[in-house]
Amino acid sequence: MLQQELEFRGINRKHLGMYFEELGGKPITDEFPFIYKSKNWAAEILREEELSITSTFKVNTVHIRFSAKDDLTLKELIKNYRVKTRRIGG
To answer: Which are the contacts of 72, defined by CB distance < 8 A and separation ≥ 6?
Structure first.
């Protein structure tokens, strides 16, 4: 099984889990690591940390491991997930 780990910043962990459900994943666990599985892929929300940018500006970071049986499925999953997590500034 192929895997890739990514870090997402400034997005609520619960929202990150909802995005997996929107992509067809079913929640398997309700604590770290939060696991989501579909027929062709799996994902784990491994941990959440707080990152200090300055002494007063802090953001959360969430580490996620994506897994799939083949490279095409893994790339498609990550691409679709990135669309869900894209934030446009104004």
So the answer is: none
